[in-house]
């Protein structure tokens, strides 16, 4: 989901992953692993591991981790900071060349499927299960979310980014309303705010990806995570599940009922359109990734400090999904190239992602780590209350569904965003949405 320059570049990178995978780029030379049997080599145990990382402001945390690791390891890690807008293209080109990185940053799910299909990644499943540091070091929902076909190919290395329902607590108090816990609550809030001339939900419809969040949560609340998991695993008949149609119908009811106002298709997120409507009190709520807090802190600090509040997505009447499930971007992951000459050293580096020192560095940078030891450190976060809410939300989640446009390969993700945009804009019916997605091959 996403475009535009957002918190730590993470949103930009996630969307670039879906869009840019269809493009070609020149090979990024000068880095690489070469072929080997996957065991550490070198007469004195020395050597170099190249690691591609998404080059944004947060990379300072990974650079510090590399510097610490290199002080004691004979095999040194060389961090290659690739600009965010070029990341996916350059990784894709490099992985098809003799100069492939040994370790690389990714989003799990569909972002690594081409490399898994080509047998280019180390299957870390048995390693994680047999190593206490890795097995117990991270929240289970995060490890599961980054897996593919039940196998683990990545270790978490950045902060979590769940999608959260943000609301203006000042407006809610003014009209004696509570944040919605159920669908009936939501309908009451919509009715009240509309009667007061306030748009119930800000929505950056021109960017398409903010609309996706609504389908992700609605399908989960209606049917649980299994329906999308079927689709993610390659069975496109999953789009024909009755719960998908019910989800699309619910979206249509929201749109027709004025939940997003009349002009949301011309409102963006990346350039600040939807966040500004929210911070100005023209919209009462905003379903958005956790980076919305940082966005508001930067654009409207008084609003962020005095009016901004947050709550989980509500339950849906008749739905069988667990109310504790979350959707969004679980985190980013390190994966290992199957051709690395220094597999053991690469795994040793990945284990440092569970170290208390690394967790503390993420917290100090404003991230909410996915490591199981993070809870005790969140009181040092820039906003301990918000940090603790996020961590508890994810820690208790039975399922954390990766954003659909990242979980799916680009050949499915691009049409998905187009069809969702048409559904929200009233250019297609719920039935046409379902038929269109079933037809994508």
TrEMBL record:
It comes from the Bacteria. PROSITE patterns: PROKAR_LIPOPROTEIN. Coiled coil: none annotated. This is Extracellular solute-binding protein. It holds the Pfam family SBP_bac_1. It comes from Peterkaempfera bronchialis. Keywords: Signal. The keyword Signal applies. Residues 1-29 form the signal peptide. SUPFAM superfamilies: Periplasmic binding protein-like II (SSF53850). InterPro entries: Bact_solute-bd_prot1 (IPR050490), SBP (IPR006059). The keyword Phosphoprotein does not apply.
């Amino acid at each position: 989901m996403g475009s535009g320059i957002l918190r730590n570049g993470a949103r930009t990178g996630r969307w670039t992953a879906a869009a840019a995978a269809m493009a070609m780029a020149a090979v990024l030379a000068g880095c690489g692993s070469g072929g080997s049997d996957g065991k550490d080599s070198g007469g004195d145990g020395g050597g170099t591991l190249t690691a591609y990382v998404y080059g944004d402001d947060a990379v300072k945390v990974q650079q510090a981790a590399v510097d610490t690791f290199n002080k004691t390891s004979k095999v040194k890690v060389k961090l290659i900071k690739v600009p965010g807008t070029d990341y996916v293209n350059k990784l894709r080109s490099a992985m098809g060349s003799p100069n492939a990185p040994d370790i690389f940053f990714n989003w799990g799910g569909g972002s690594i499927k081409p490399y898994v299909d080509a047998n280019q990644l180390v299957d870390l499943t048995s390693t994680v299960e047999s190593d206490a540091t890795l097995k117990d070091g991270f929240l289970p929902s995060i490890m599961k979310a980054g897996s593919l076909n039940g196998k683990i190919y990545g270790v978490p290395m950045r902060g979590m980014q769940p999608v959260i329902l943000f609301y203006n607590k000042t407006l809610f108090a003014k009209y004696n309303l509570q944040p919605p816990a159920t669908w009936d609550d939501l309908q009451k809030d919509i009715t009240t705010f509309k009667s007061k001339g306030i748009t119930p939900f800000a929505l950056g419809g021109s960017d398409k990806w903010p609309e996706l969040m609504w389908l992700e949560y609605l399908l989960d609340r209606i049917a649980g995570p299994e329906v999308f998991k079927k689709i993610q695993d390659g069975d496109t008949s999953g789009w024909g599940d009755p719960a998908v149609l019910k989800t699309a119908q619910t979206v249509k009811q929201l749109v027709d009922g004025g939940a997003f106002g009349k002009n949301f298709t011309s409102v963006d997120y990346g350039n600040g359109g939807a966040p500004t409507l929210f911070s100005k009190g023209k919209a009462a709520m905003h379903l958005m990734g956790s980076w919305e807090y940082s966005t508001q802190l930067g654009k409207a600090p008084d609003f962020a400090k005095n009016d901004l509040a947050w709550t989980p997505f509500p339950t849906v009447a008749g739905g069988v999904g667990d109310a504790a499930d979350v959707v969004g971007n679980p985190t980013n992951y390190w994966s290992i190239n199957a051709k690395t000459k220094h597999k053991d050293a690469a795994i040793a580096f990945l284990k440092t992602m569970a170290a208390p020192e690394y967790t503390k560095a993420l917290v100090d940078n404003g991230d909410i780590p996915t490591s199981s030891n993070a809870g005790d450190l969140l009181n040092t976060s820039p906003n301990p209350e918000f940090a603790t809410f996020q961590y508890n939300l994810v820690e208790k989640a039975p399922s954390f569904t990766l954003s659909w446009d990242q979980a799916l390969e680009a050949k499915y993700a691009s049409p998905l965003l187009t069809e969702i945009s048409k559904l929200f804009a009233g250019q297609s019916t719920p039935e046409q949405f379902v038929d269109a997605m079933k037809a994508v091959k």
